[in-house]
Amino acid sequence: AERALRLLTLTPQGMLFEDEHVQVGVKHEYRGPAGRLALYLRNRDPARPLVAARLGVASTGPALRVQAREEDGAERAVPPGGQATLMALLECLQPFKDPPELRLQYTAPGGRAFNHLLRLPVAMTCFLEPVPLPDRGAFEDRWGRLAPQDGNDAQETVGLISATDPGARLARLRRMMEQGMRMAVVESNADTELLAAATFRTNTSGPDGNKLSVGCLVKVNVPSGNPSTLQVAVRSTAARASWGLLHAVAAQARGLE
């Protein structure tokens, strides 16, 4: 379940959950601070309906505003082999760690009731936009200007499942950053580090009336003499953004195989 959730945050669609009775698929897309989710509940039974089926999306805090609309009402029967659909709009207001959750309820053929609470594949990285930098020197200049203060320098040492070929694992993480986490990776001659830059977009207005954005820099290193770990560090102009982004990047790094 954890691995599937991590992969789904990097890809536009896939299977979120399945058991002997149902499958739940998800499609999601983002632009700046706005996101859109489509959730599909499929009845796997070819002969009998699901009854009292209900889907609902709930935010886990004030960082995300969720507007959800379920087709054909909040509760319904799902015909044999048929599906129910839930559409949800997301609005990112501030940095966050915990994703919104899907409430799934249904009564299976035979009368047994099920109630699931599923985390959705929505991470802080979904609301990033890449910031290309010309070279390592430009990155280090910005990194130095974001001197540690007020908790804006977040760090974590991540243990890897295996110490085999840490360079290959960094290459995989680079692809994740560029293709799924919406970061611009900075070219570096070192094969034991990754450098990346992005802007975190919100729909919260600042004092000047403009929407607040947070510049973020990420460093990932293979510590000398300890190839079974990765050192992940994030600096930004806001402490909550640093720690929220660290949480998202470290989760992907931790799952590298």
Automatic annotation (TrEMBL):
InterPro entries according to UniProt: Clathrin_app_Ig-like_sf
Record-given protein name: Clathrin adaptor alpha-adaptin appendage C-terminal subdomain domain-containing protein
